[in-house]
Write a structure and sequence with these properties.
The protein is mostly helical. It contains 3 helices and no strands. It has one domain.
């Protein structure tokens, strides 16, 4: 994560609030890791190369903003 990602994360916290921002971070890290593994397996990237994290943060923010409460409610009902 670069400093731009940190600034974006601060803005995410202001927009989403504490519960949704935790969900958004988790979603961003999960999708970023998934895409990273796919790129390594497809030999598009080598292990240790960087990929931009901002798009994952932005996508997770949009998902958390519009559907975060429903997803969190579903997860807590089915997992806990």
């Amino acid at each position: 994560m670069g400093f731009g990602d940190v600034k974006l994360a601060f803005l995410m916290g202001l927009i989403l609030g504490p519960l949704k921002v935790i969900f958004a971070f988790y979603l961003a890290f999960l999708t970023g890791a998934f895409v990273g593994v796919i790129l390594i397996l497809a030999k598009k990237k080598k292990f240790g190369e960087q990929i931009p994290f901002g798009p994952f943060l932005t996508g997770a923010t949009v998902i958390a903003l519009f559907w975060g409460e429903e997803i969190i409610r579903w997860l807590t009902a089915h997992l806990f």
